[in-house]
Design goal:
Layout lengths: L5 H16 L5 H10 L3 H17 L16 H19 L6 H15 L6
Helix pairs in contact: 1-3, 3-5, 4-5
């Protein structure tokens, strides 16, 4: 069993995003990005990123994957996250981690059918 710690995932995600900005980013730009990454959506994206990394790896230790979530609107957003994330990755090609880019077309295809993943 694996439980993804959302706070730890969000901290790691924020660090990676800030690191990608590189030394050319000035203090104001970094502060702006930090502010943009302070919301709850970042935690959800980071958790999904961890999940995508797990599923896109070559580890065959998992026969089944269960999302255990609270029955709220956030769950509905989470269920829609794969398609929304896929659209964003397509729009900003190359900005997402490799694991997410490999995983999303398959998830969208499982949910909506083969034509939706294109």
């Amino acid at each position: 069993m694996l439980n993804i710690d959302p706070d730890s995932a969000a901290d790691n995600y924020r660090s990676r995003v800030i690191a990608q900005m590189g030394a050319a980013a000035d203090a104001q730009e970094v502060a702006t990005v930090r502010e943009q990454l302070a919301g709850a959506c970042t935690t959800e994206i980071a958790t999904f990123d961890e999940f995508a990394t797990l599923l896109s790896g070559n580890d065959s230790a998992w026969d089944h994957v269960v999302f255990d979530t609270a029955p709220t609107g956030h769950t509905l957003l989470l269920l829609d996250a794969a398609e929304a994330y896929h659209r964003e990755v397509s729009r900003a090609s190359g900005a997402a981690p490799d694991a997410v880019r490999r995983l999303l077309p398959g998830v969208v295809e499982m949910v909506d059918g083969p034509a939706a993943a294109e």
